[in-house]
Amino acid sequence: MPVLSDATRGRILFGGDYNPEQWPEETWHEDVRLMKDAGVNSVTLGVFSWSKLEPEPGAREFGWLDTLMDLMHAGGIGVVLATPTASPPPWMGRLHPDTLPRTEDGRTEWWGGRQHFSHSSATYRRHAAAITADLAARYGGHPALTMWHINNEYCTFDYGDEAAAAFRRWLRQRYGTLDTLNTAWGTAFWSQGYDTWDGILPPRLPHYMRNPTQVLDFRRFTSDMLLECYVAERDIVRRHTPHLPVTSNFMPLWIGQDAWRWTEEEDVVSVDLYPDPRDPLGAQQGALVQDMTRSQARGPWMLMEQAAGPVNWRGVNHPKPHGLNRLWSLQAVARGADAVCYFQWRQSRQGAEKFHSGMVSHAGEQGRTYQEVRQLGADLARLSPHVTGQHSGADVAVLHDWHAWWAGAQDGRLSTEVDYADVLKTWHRALWQAHLTTDFAHPEHDLTAYKLVVVPQLYALTGTAIDNLLAYVRQGGTLVSGFLTGVADEDDRVRPGGMDARLRELFGIRTLHEWWPLDAGETVECDGPQGAFRGTLWSEELEADGTATETVPYKGGELDGLPAVLRRDRAWYLSTLPEPEALRDLLATIAADAGVRPVLDGLPGQVEAVRRGDLLFLLNHGREPVTVDVPGTHRDLLTEATVTDRVTLGRYGVAVLRP
Ligand code: GLA
User: Fold this and answer.
1) Ligand 1: centre distance to CA 288 (Å)
2) How do residues 523-551 score in pLDDT, each as one tens digit?
């Protein structure tokens, strides 16, 4: 199968979504000049071009795209060609209302925005396949073409009738018989037993809480249906260009797609990433998504979209201060990206995203945004020969599974304060702040290469995953688990005892008497050997079985003296969420015991250090200059300077050191 390096050919891809159909032809020539000047070597064409390519049913308008493909080729700029299927033309909805998705309360999602397509609509799929086939036939042999980009951020749900029929088919395949489905869904509760497949619906808006397993299966189904759409288009382009890689861009840590499953079908894993420049944890949010994407790719990956300045979909949309775009771009390279791309090349003057930044902002060539983009282009060109194709794994893995997220993110839980994604971010943040590089892994993956595995929260676990965790510890691995892990099976059926018995034994828990969720802002005192700390969000009334080698008790309150943290040899269980610094210190201590070293010792808090191949990236996330000890002699690939023992990084400064 083709891979990212077939498209990069030794250069970090640099560029972005290019929407020339929004501009007159003179601007296209100006664009090529500016692209070349900035070192842009890749653009994504056609993402939302369907009505331009097929202005009326069956028509084909390829002339403008022919011109652009040729222009790009003449300028030495590669093209990632997108299928335009994320935004069907208005005629499609008008002539074929069956292509429009329905919300859970039966509303139609009309044209006039984007992504108004039903993944289950046979009509939509037929039209999508036709335009994809014609694009692939026409441009498959074009010398500018380097990669295919299918659709864009697949994310639609559909509760309509055609989706309902597809859902039933999907369920028949999963369960075989209605009896099995009724058992899996626990339909004995509230008189929900089904006597015919035709009675089953997507989880449309009910009077009161929905059947959780029905909701869970609907999420699985939706991810699978979107994947079917992707695979159908991928297979079409593959027939024409078996040598070119195919991707579709993920939204970062989005709940709707099981990205572990999706990446099995992708040649290149790509992601869109928009941390808030004002968020003090923006760099960590970026690191999390980058770590996750690298882990899914198991090698170099593509930053398909980021913003050169502000986005326009937050309440208040802040620009990136001078230097931040470069810093966050190089952070992605440090964490394995072989492509640094943007939405979009030139900021629009019309349409819903005209206040969203582009690489060329409304201020144009003289604007700070474009000038910083140019500098970044030069930096990436310097780094390209040293980094492309390089992959570095980690000693620590954070376990993450969409199915566990889906099962846990439902109504009728004990606390709406517990948010899966927030818990995951908090644990990753603790490791990031301890300067420990982390991979992400699925609970059924082979974990034996890792010295430390952490489970922030996996509410539902399959028997296979539990076997895997037990085997990992048996074979010498260190496991740290947060609360609400192993509570349910894959049907969201609570396991006897409130937590899988084998996991309880692993951690030294005899009885889990009660869960004691905490209110927002409420804390519980814990009295650890390394000092006292406060727990947040959750606590548990646990009875240890006497086999624990270490415990940290709750202090005061209803749970006084009961274990907040339990350790049985190499297996740790945290029944509360320690405050961030305490979690950082605890994980750092456990990691050190497990033989995991921070990337560099003695790093100032604001500096992130990442190794990629034999390179050491140092990234100053602070506005103040900082000096970092780096024993030995190195060459800074960005400045060509020799660095001996210490390096000073300016505001948002970066050094890329080669020994
Ligand atoms: C997403 C989309 C782009 C654009 C950006 C704006 O990532 O893929 O088309 O809408 O958001 O941030």
Assistant:
1) 19
2) 999 997 778 999 999 999 999 999 999 89
Is 277 strand, coil or helix? Answer: coil
Ligand 1 contact via 153 beta carbon (within 6 Å):
yes
Catalytic entry in 54, 109, 266, 305: 305
What local confidence, expressed as pLDDT, does residue 528 receive?
A: 76
Known catalytic residue at 305 = yes
User: Is 250 touching ligand 1 by the criterion CB < 6 Å?
Assistant: no
8 Å CB contact between 626 and 607? yes
Among 3.60.10.10, 3.90.1150.150, 1.10.3720.10, 3.40.50.880, what is the CATH number of 396-593?
3.40.50.880
Query: What are the sequence ranges of the domains in the chain?
Result: 271-388, 396-593, 607-658
List the alpha helices (DSSP H) in 455-571.
463-474, 501-507
Pocket mutation for ligand 1, best pick of 272, 274, 314, 356 (most atoms within 8 Å of C-beta)? 272
Residue 152 Cβ inside 6 Å of ligand 1? The answer reads yes
305 in contact with ligand 1, CB cutoff 6 A: yes
Residue 144: Cβ-neighbour burial (10 angstroms; 0-12, 13-18, 19+): buried
Cα of 414 from ligand 1 centre, angstroms: 35
Dump pLDDT digits (tens) for 606-644: 999 999 999 999 999 999 999 999 999 999 999 999 999
pLDDT in tens, 41-64: 999 999 999 999 999 999 999 999
Candidate from 220-224, 360-364, 547-551 with smallest mean pLDDT: 547-551
The pLDDT score that the predictor gives to residue 393 is 87
Q: What is the distance in A from the centroid of ligand 1 to the CA of 344?
A: 8
Work out the angle at residue 355's Cα, subtended by the Cα atoms of residues 352 and 356, and round it to the nearest 5 degrees: 90
**Digit-coded pLDDT (tens) for 414-423:** 999 999 999 9
CA distance 53 to 631: 58
How do residues 285-331 score in pLDDT, each as one tens digit? Answer: 999 999 999 999 999 999 999 999 999 999 999 999 999 999 999 99
- Residue 360 CA to residue 18 CA, distance in Å, equals 11
Q: What kind of fold does domain 607-658 have according to CATH?
A: Immunoglobulin-like (2.60.40)
Whether 343 is in the pocket of ligand 1, judged by its Cβ within 6 Å, is yes
Asked if residue 356 has its Cβ within 6 Å of ligand 1, the reply is yes
Can 514 be counted among the known catalytic residues?
Answer: no
Residue 251 CA, ligand 1 centroid: distance in Å: 9
Peptide bond preceding 290 in cis form (omega within 30 of 0): no
Structure tokens at 109: 């999602």
> Which residue has the least CA distance to atom 7 on ligand 1?
272
Please report where in the chains the tokens 């690191």 appear, as a residue. Answer: 287
Could you give the strand order of the β-sheet that contains 654-658, starting from the edge strand earlier in sequence?
A: 607-612, 615-620, 654-658, 626-636, 642-649
Output the pTM of the full model: 0.98
Give the active site residue among 153, 233, 372, 540: 153
Percent of the chain topping pLDDT 70: 100
